[in-house]
Specification:
heterodimer; A: about 500 residues; alpha/beta; Aldehyde Dehydrogenase, Chain A, domain 1; seven-stranded mixed sheet; six-stranded mixed sheet; 16 helices; about 15% strand; globular; B: about 290 residues; five-stranded parallel sheet; three-stranded antiparallel sheet; 12 strands; about 40% helix
């Protein structure tokens, strides 16, 4: 006799009362200039572009577009600050400035969280509980390293590099700025940071905080713009180091551009992480881990667990529980505290995701999306599963950077290791099993920079982050993150 | 008529509270013939009460995240910065010049910041993953020793005090400190700073009095795990070393005759009060030798 299946539908009469975060207390200027040499200066390009709220398609602010002349001014300001002030300052004092920035960010945490949610579309719950506190923690952690570098590299004499050019992505705007700026300053470098063009606002708020901290002029410069501004920074002759987080495609362009120069680089690029569920895993926790792995930040996460491998014997039960759990996900207003999945970051990214949804179906995979309503305005994508996929499917091979999960099954440990490693990427992986020895077998054999055991998408300033293979090189976070900004 | 000044009653600090010594005794150290006040002359019983408080605080303090401890220690520095003037005045009262006093307070703040930064870093410096020749994941991580008896430097009433407390609590240990006998004022005020800095009661307990009378008990108490002695007195050192034997206390002796020296800013001062724990865990099926059960 066929089992009766019950489909849970939370979209009927189960609506949660709206709980939107207020935006009264935040301040966003109508227009932002470039933050160069401690001052707000008009762009020489004379151009401004709009930063849009992806949940409403409304304009939040106009932001300056830096051309190569603007980038040149910023690099000059950074060089001057390096030569005259920052490289001469005792490490202890340098550290105290970084502590100040951390504390000021903590004081303004709520404002930063709301702006992050408005500008990027991420749920306020995530901005408030993850992005902003972690960004503060990064500054706090690296502040302490400033006068302790000799202990991180015994028997070597660490020295700063000079001017660091840093380019950050749109998925964790402030957090990525913190990952870049905090270690660079702690190690005695000065910075030119270019945030992503769709989400520049929290980096500009950070510029205000940096001004308020009294950090010497030019130590941190923040210049906004798109790919061309980034290219100008990468190609500038007086930049000693490039730190980039973004796609593998652009990472390769950067590595090519700096070939033949003395520039050092760290590249934190794409991923296509395997999340592996064994039959002896705590299933309910694993399901939460799958959800968190792929739907955290709308799947706009380089380390997202976008390839799910379920051991055959538990395939049906995991899939059923996963679908049930997805039915309870709240998609909608990012500022609502109940929201699990916010807006897709931009129109362009939504088009990319939709392209992959089409390809997935066309190549024969089975698509599943829960029944849920999505707002009429803005950019949205329902949480999506693909089953009946194989290793050769495009949606298994390529990074989608959206809430889209490709599910495969496996029988043996060797098989899943082979499949998990069969990708040009190597950023992260997840393993779910209650058996410790099996866990450590997997952590030993998976070719990935971060392996989460019975958890997923956990980050900490003390914990190094970065990839194997085409997911990039260099580590950010922890003691290892210092090395990227030092020479010996 | 001139306003009559309100004088401060000096107390000790146990379990986050400010009692007077249970013994009711006092002593009056003098600087240049002038009394500093009636300072609590703490007893063995005060010390024993403080050990109970320190032991009970150890669990939550060592269990707090390193990040949290780091922020709390940073908070102590923030509070100290805000009360600079009071410490400068007390140091002057204890015989420092104004310039010396200011220098000492600033150095104390910076030293706290220095150790605050280590809370979430020393583990990365002192721990290890050990490449054992079998199929095991083997790693060594530090844990705080526990409750520490501390005798603060006699000649450096504030900087010395801060320098012995900070590395002990950075890793999560708790302590009972006997302050400088003849320069005790800053220790009482520093207790007030600790009390307003989110440092849980009992993590640091500060007693004033005659250390000669307390040493024996501090070194022999069976619920104390380690002893930090920061003076130069061979006779006292010997007494501590002998009394510490019964429960194998770790005895650490530091020379604080140059309190400003950079030698006092090092993670090895934290390491003095760490226990190293090594964990073995099998790895299924790695290497040629098979699993390491």
């Amino acid at each position: 006799m066929a089992k009766k299946t019950i489909q849970i539908n939370f979209d009927t009469g189960w609506d949660l009362a709206p709980a939107p975060e207020s935006t009264d207390h935040i301040k966003i200027n109508e227009q932002y200039n470039l933050f160069i040499g401690g001052k707000w200066v008009k762009p020489k390009s004379g151009k401004y572009f709009a930063s849009i709220n992806p949940a409403t398609e409304e304009k939040l602010a106009m932001v300056a577009e830096a051309n190569d002349k603007d980038i040149d001014s910023a690099v000059k300001a950074a060089r001057k600050a390096y030569d005259t002030v920052w490289s001469k300052m005792p490490a202890k004092e340098r550290g105290k400035y970084i502590y100040r920035i951390a504390r000021l960010m903590q004081e303004k945490a709520r404002e930063l969280a709301v702006i992050e949610s408005l500008d990027g579309g991420k749920p306020i719950r995530e901005a408030r509980d993850i992005d902003i506190p972690l960004a503060c923690a990064h500054f706090f952690y690296y502040a302490g390293w400033a006068d302790k570098l000799d202990y991180a590299f015994p028997n070597r004499k660490p020295k700063s590099l000079g001017v660091a050019g840093q380019i950050t992505p749109w998925n964790f705007p402030l957090l990525m700025a913190a990952w870049k700026i905090a270690p660079a300053l702690a190690t005695g470098n000065t910075v030119v940071l270019k945030p992503a063009e769709t989400t520049p606002l929290t980096a500009l708020k950070l510029a205000e905080i940096i001004q308020e901290s009294g950090l010497p002029d030019g130590v941190v410069n923040i210049v906004t713009g798109a790919a061309e501004s980034g290219a100008a920074l990468v190609n500038h002759k007086d930049v000693d180091k490039i730190a980039f987080t973004g796609s593998t495609g652009v990472g390769k362009i950067i590595q090519n551009a700096i070939a033949g120069t003395d520039k050092k680089a760290t590249l934190e690029l794409g991923g296509k992480a395997a999340n592996i569920i064994f039959e002896d895993a705590p299933i309910d926790q694993a399901v939460e881990g799958i959800i968190n792995g792929i739907f955290f930040n709308q799947g706009h996460v380089c380390c997202a667990g976008s390839r799910l491998f379920i051991q055959e014997s538990v395939y049906d039960v995991v899939l059923r529980k996963l679908k049930d759990r997805m039915q309870a996900l709240v998609v909608g207003n990012p500022l609502d505290k109940n929201t699990d999945i916010g807006a897709i970051n931009s129109k362009e990214q939504l088009a990319t995701i939709n392209k992959y949804l089409k390809i997935g179906t066309k190549e024969g995979a089975e698509i599943y999306q829960p029944e849920c309503s999505i707002p009429k305005k803005g950019y949205w994508c329902k949480p999506t599963l693909f089953t009946n996929v194989s290793q050769s499917n495009t949606i298994v091979q390529e990074e989608i950077f959206g809430p889209v999960l490709a599910i495969q099954s496996f029988r043996t440990v060797d098989e899943v290791i082979e499949k998990a490693n069969n990708t040009p990427y190597g950023l992260s992986a997840g393993v779910w099993t209650d058996k410790g020895s099996k866990m450590f077998n997997l952590t030993s054999q998976l070719k990935a920079g971060i392996v989460w055991g019975n958890t997923y998408n956990k980050f900490d300033p003390t914990s190094p982050f970065g990839g194997f293979k085409e997911s990039g090189f260099g580590r950010e976070g922890g003691l290892h993150g210092l090395k990227a900004y030092l020479k010996f | 008529m001139e306003r009559v000044e309100v004088l401060k009653t000096y107390k000790i600090y146990i379990g986050g509270k400010f009692p007077r010594t249970e013994s009711g005794r006092y002593y009056s150290p003098e600087i240049n013939g002038k009394s500093l006040g009636n300072i609590c002359h703490s007893s063995r019983k005060d010390f024993r009460n403080a050990v109970v408080a320190a032991r009970s605080a150890f669990g939550s303090w060592s269990g707090a995240t390193a990040y949290n401890r780091s922020q709390v220690m940073y908070r102590i520095a923030e509070m100290l910065e805000g009360r600079k003037a009071q410490f400068v005045a007390e140091l002057i009262q204890q015989g420092s010049s104004k310039i010396q006093a200011e220098k000492e307070v600033i150095a104390s703040i910076d030293r706290l910041i220095y150790y605050a930064g280590w809370c979430d870093k020393y583990a990365q410096v002192f721990s290890a993953v050990n490449p054992v020749a079998s199929s095991h994941f083997n790693f060594t991580t530090p844990e705080p020793t526990g409750v520490v008896s501390v005798v603060a430097p006699e000649d450096s009433g504030l900087l010395g005090l801060v320098s012995v407390i900070a590395p002990v609590i950075a890793s999560g240990s708790s302590c009972i400190v006997v302050a400088s006998e003849n320069k005790p004022l800053c220790s009482v005020t520093f207790a007030e700073v600790l009390n307003s800095s989110d440092v849980p009661g009992g993590v640091v307990n500060i007693l004033t009095g005659k250390r000669g009378e307390l040493l024996k008990h501090m070194a022999s108490h069976m619920d104390v795990n380690a002893f930090l002695y920061a003076n130069n007195n061979k006779k006292e050192e010997l007494e501590i070393q002998k009394e510490a034997v019964e429960n194998l206390k770790r005895v650490v002796i530091k020379d604080f005759s140059k309190p400003y020296s950079d030698e006092h800013e090092t993670p090895y001062y934290i390491e003095d009060f760490l226990e190293m724990k090594t964990t073995w865990h099998p790895i299924e099926k790695i290497g040629a030798k098979g699993s390491g059960y």
